[in-house]
Amino acid sequence: MSEEQHLNFIEEIVEGDLAAGKYGSIVTRFPPEPNGYLHIGHAKSICLNFGLAQKYGGKTNLRFDDTNPVTEETEYVESIKNDVQWLGFNWAEELYASNYFDQIHGFAVRLIEMDLAYVDDSSSEEIATQKGTPTQPGTPNVYRSRTVTENLQLFEDMRLGKYADGEKVLRAKIDLASNNMHMRDPIIYRIKHAHHHRTGNKWCIYPMYDFAHGQSDAIENITHSVCTLEFIPHRELYNWFIEKLSIFPSKQYEFARLNMTYTVMSKRKLLQLVQENHVTGWDDPRMSTISGMRRRGYPAAAIREFCDRIGIAKRDNLIDISLLEFCVREDLNKTAVRRMVVFDPLKVIITNYTGEGEILHSENNPEDQNGGTREVPFSKEIFVERDDFMEEPSKKYFRLAPGQMVRLKSAYIIKCDDFVKDANGNVTELHCSYIPESKSGSDTSGIHVKGTLHWVSTAHAIPAEVRLYDRLFNVEDVAGAEGDFKDYINTDSLTVVPHAYAEPALLHDSIGVGFQFLRKGYFCADKDSTPTKLVFNRTVGLKDTWAKEVKKGA
RNA sequence: UGCCUGAUAGUAUAAUGGUAGUACGACUGUUUUUGGUGCAGUUUGUCUUGGUUCGAAUCCAGGUCGGGCAACCA
Questions:
Q1: In this structure, is the CB of residue A162 within 7 Å of any atom belonging to strand B?
Q2: Catalytic residue flag (residue A267)
Q3: Which 8-state DSSP code applies to residue A278?
Q4: Is strand B in 7 Å reach of the CB of A366?
Q5: Of A515, A63, A73, A147, whose CA–CA distance to A333 is shortest?
Q6: Contact, A438 vs A412, CB < 8 A?
Q7: A267, A286, A338, A467: the active-site residue
Q8: Which nucleotide is nearest to A452 (CA to C1')?
Q9: Domain check: are A49 and A181 in the same one?
Q10: Which chain A residues 34-63 have CB under 7 A to strand B?
Q11: Does at least one atom of strand B sit less than 7 Å from the CB of A333?
Q12: Which protein residue lies nearest to nucleotide B70, measured between its Cα and the C1' atom?
């Protein structure tokens, strides 16, 4: 009652329709064309369409808008199904616009019979010219006054394959003077002698989007057909066909598509990145595709949360990618298993440690009481991160420096006594002493240190490759930037750390879980990872207030 | 030149004629065996000009700015 339910404008429409008794329950659909992989923008649409049905007790169909056989492939169908499922949604029915080709063809015949469609022999250029311009009305050509009988015969001949591609089209007869260019006798059927991934060679004529989408919606009794803003001018046509054909009156509603900083969101551009090898594939972890994000380690729940937070409205937007990253961290912080991995090793010898070594225990996740612990071997010689030592520390540097003390996570407090340099002046080794009574969990030393470091015992360290990703583009608004979007590709978007050192527990961890490498960020095993060669992707870094501090000083 | 759309903190999004709120970001402080997390707090906004009204982000009119529309693509 009292909770503030902020409805988006589409939810308001749905609630209004339901309250008015317009529909018993709602039916939505997610209608991708299988000509590429799904991206985060599709996720927004998926969450909206499936979310609506879940919230109001309806159903959602997955419908492939496969009306253009030359761009569509089964590979894409499979990837789309996989991505929608991975995101956590189940469709009521798996459908294809091509299932309806017979019915849609029948609709076209009906239109011809009503003298509302005609076969046009003009070339595509002629048709474009005859359409006029937004400020000048179009002009009818001779074909527009063909008789119903003639049109029926010609359309049938088109279907029979008597004409070559482009020789003839079927056009709706509407209004060549309309302010809406889409109403100026739009083409509704074209000839394409092409193999279709579902219907094979059965057809050589295919309906255009405008003559398939609304009809498919109607056939499926879709109550709320939600699409993006650029289809607003199509709505008039959408309604016109439904009215003339007297079919189920689906209603189209439009929302603003997702735009995100530092990335591109169009299948055409994503395809280009793949084809020109700017990335390794559709599932490259830097891609804005669902499959790329999955491989990068973004949890589905985080993507759903993101889609929830960005809202649904009609205003053009450019969402900061850091909001997505926030959602990813928020999710992973609660679920990721903590491990220690040193990327850039600096050897530390604990000079006063006389034991053989020992097994210590460290919690798997401080956020999860039931997460348990793991064994971490400790010994006289360990690796720490090279940038966790400074010969001449700045004032607020809480890590190792001559005479300075830190805690080794889940182990002991150590003090840096000395360091060794090579001929080039590079620090090669630290000599530290440990405080025996400072052992984690039974610390009686009374010493408090400000810094805690991750570390790995050199004798037990497991080599691993770590891949660090940065934004794929170096401008915020890639689509809005002048010139070719490829000019803005960030050439440093991938950094490989070939020889990182991981604690041994990581060897036995199952693939598919999210990790937090302490103080380094969130990671997941890549599909390239094998038992003999571990490979990890950095999903996202940790919030780093120290880096910010350093930057300020610089 | 036409038509269609939209405009609320830096970014998104609510307030549906009656206290401009929330989240992310930024900044403080605090807690912490991750410079992480958590907690507390601060910060910044109704495109503009008129009108209607006791009262306007909301309604009306004009302007400004943004996006879209003339593929045998979807």
A1: no
A2: yes
A3: S
A4: yes
A5: A515
A6: yes
A7: A267
A8: B33
A9: yes
A10: none
A11: yes
A12: A133
State the CATH number of the domain containing residue A311. Answer: 2.40.240.10
List Cβ neighbours of A22 (8 Å cut-off, separation of 6 or more).
Answer: none
- Tell which of A434, A454, A474 closes a domain: A454
Q: Are residues A333 and A345 in the same domain?
A: no
CA distances from A532 to A343, A459, A466, A495, A528 (A): 18, 17, 14, 21, 11
- List C-alpha distances in Å: A54 to A4, A23, A81, A317: 19, 15, 19, 26
Tens digit of each residue's pLDDT, chain A (554 residues): 334 578 999 999 999 999 999 999 999 999 999 999 999 999 999 999 999 999 999 999 999 999 999 999 999 999 999 999 999 999 999 999 999 999 999 999 999 999 999 999 999 999 999 999 999 999 999 999 999 999 999 999 999 999 999 999 999 999 999 999 999 999 999 999 999 999 999 999 999 999 999 999 999 999 999 999 999 999 999 999 999 999 999 999 999 999 999 999 999 999 999 999 999 999 999 999 999 999 999 999 999 999 999 999 999 999 999 999 999 999 999 999 999 999 999 999 999 999 899 999 999 999 998 999 999 999 999 999 999 999 999 989 999 999 999 999 999 999 999 999 999 999 999 999 999 999 999 999 999 999 999 999 999 999 999 999 999 999 999 999 999 999 999 999 999 999 999 999 998 876 668 999 999 999 999 999 998 999 999 999 999 999 998 887 76
Tokens in use for A508? 């036995």
Residue for token pair 């903590």: A338
* Residue at a domain's end among A230, A255, A280: A255
A179 and A322 together in one domain: no
The amino acid sitting at A268 is R
CB neighbour class for A130 (10 Å; exposed up to 12, middle 13-18, buried from 19): middle
Q: Please answer whether residues A78 and A131 qualify as being in contact, where contact means their C-beta atoms are separated by less than 8 angstroms.
A: no
* Distance CA A9 to C1' B56 in A: 21
Q: What is the ipTM of this complex?
A: 0.97
Identify the domain containing residue A89 by its residue range.
24-255
Active site includes A257?
yes
User: Collapsing DSSP states into helix, strand and coil, what is residue A46?
Assistant: helix
